[in-house]
Design goal:
alpha/beta, about 450 residues, 21 strands, about 25% helix, carbamoyl-phosphate synthase (glutamine-hydrolyzing) activity, 10-stranded mixed sheet, ligase, Glucose Oxidase, domain 1
Length: about 450
């Protein structure tokens, strides 16, 4: 039995064991108790925290009929988006500027939000904002239980309300976010309308538009090629599907030269230019990125050097490999998601932000599961059994969140250096052309 066959068998055994534990009576009972209060379903309540003095009344209306009333802060405009929640305790500036939240109303399960204000827009040596994951707020609105009107932090320059108002993002406080999250967990993420005014909007006048019906990746991606750390010793093509700044920074800190390219960049015709390929995170459904999927599918056939994907990158690599993607009921968003490495059996705590996942029930030939979520059993990564291609659904760069898997950036860049040092051609076509030339010379 070969080493790869042994690893594959071990991988499947670990995956099956995790699935069995998740479906055990005690595990199901624990999840049942976690979803009820006093053995009864939680009901939505009106605002119960003092709202911002002198503020307007605000309303969060779900398409399924529930309405939450609170106080308005930030911009007083109206907004519609997919209502999702994050369990992150800290890092609201990073979460709100994460392009993966584009088109979404972001609910914070952490009750106190705004305590440390908003930091200044300082840039690092690569020209990237230190404390934000993009140039602007990406979510369509935020929902909090208790907004801190007075902030305190040595690095803060404005309040959360001032920041939201300046960027035109509406927000609501005083919401029973626990009840709201129970609704979203039960029925799934749903469209919501956030508005300011004495009365909720009339249902018939709300124009419900599902952001996931659009290609949000095309909106979030760069329009042109941008180069970071131009003196790096290896050249990485970073496909921008809505990249977080800390992904760029993490690659640059490993000494790589990074070319940030658009989501639909002509990758195949430029493979020889890159020592490695990296696919970023991004918003919305991966199924809209047909051009990226087609480019990756061709690259899988001929490319010989390392490829790595994160979050949306994991889904796009899976689709290119032949898997399908599906929408999770309420997604995995937060800094406390456990993922099991099926090659080692070790569990790591990860930062995540995604509403879609790969269906890995039947893996295509040549591919294997890499990580699995220890909570819900959803896919957390795939890897090729022979070529240096792999991806993860979570965020090794964190920002915010745990750094348990930050080593994956070093592993990727080191593998790129190794393939370059070995003189490995960029693509199989180069190998074929060399073989043809050699045969012609000896003929």
């Amino acid at each position: 039995m070969s080493f790869l066959t042994t690893m594959s068998a071990s991988n499947n055994a670990a995956y099956s064991a995790i699935k069995r534990r998740m479906n055990s009576p005690m595990a199901l009972l624990a999840r049942s108790f976690a979803s009820v209060k006093d053995n009864a379903s939680t009901k939505p309540l009106h605002a119960y925290y003092p709202v911002v003095p002198g503020s307007l009344t605000a309303h969060l209306q779900l398409r399924t009929g529930e309405t939450f009333t609170g106080g308005s802060f930030g911009a007083t405009s109206s907004s519609i988006g997919e209502t999702v929640f994050t369990t992150s305790l800290v890092g609201y500036p990073e979460s709100m500027t994460d392009p993966s939240y584009r088109g979404q109303l972001l609910v914070f399960t952490q009750p106190l939000i705004g305590n440390y204000g908003v930091p200044k827009r300082t840039r690092d040596q690569y020209g990237l904002l230190k404390h934000f994951e993009s140039e602007k707020i990406q979510c369509s609105g935020i929902v909090v239980s208790d907004y801190a009107t007075k902030y305190s932090h040595w690095n803060a320059v404005e309040s959360l309300s001032e920041w939201c108002e300046r960027e035109g993002v509406p927000a609501i406080t005083g919401v029973d976010t626990r009840a709201l999250v129970h609704i979203l967990r039960g029925q799934g993420s749903t469209l919501g309308s956030l508005s300011a005014g004495s009365q909720p909007l009339e249902e018939s006048k709300i124009q419900w538009v599902d952001p996931n019906a659009k290609n949000l990746v095309a909106q979030a991606s760069t329009d042109s090629v941008r180069v970071f750390n131009p003196d790096g010793d290896v050249h990485i093509a970073l496909i921008d599907c809505g990249v977080k700044y800390n992904i760029i920074r993490s690659l640059c800190e490993q000494g790589a030269r990074v070319s940030l390219v658009p989501w639909n960049h002509n990758l195949v015709d430029n493979l020889a230019s890159y020592d490695g390929i990296f696919i970023s995170n991004g918003p919305g459904s991966p199924t809209h990125c047909t051009e990226t999927i087609a480019q990756l599918r061709q690259a899988f056939e001929v490319y010989q050097r390392p490829i790595f994907g994160i979050c949306m990158g994991n889904q796009l690599m899976g689709l290119a490999a032949g898997l399908n993607a599906y929408k999770l009921r309420f997604g995995n968003r937060g800094h406390n998601q456990p993922a099991v490495d099926l090659t080692t059996g070790k569990c790591v705590i990860t930062s995540q932000n995604h509403g879609y996942a790969l269906d890995d029930a039947q893996m295509p030939a040549g591919w294997d599961r890499y990580y699995v979520n220890a909570n819900d059993g959803s896919n957390e990564g795939i890897r090729h059994v022979e070529k240096p291609f792999r991806s993860v659904q979570f965020h090794p760069e964190a920002k915010g969140g745990p750094l348990d898997t930050g080593y994956l950036f070093a592993e990727f860049v080191d593998s790129v250096r190794a393939s370059k040092a070995a003189g490995l051609p960029a693509s199989q076509s180069v190998i074929d052309e060399s073989a043809t030339s050699a045969q012609a010379a000896t003929a």
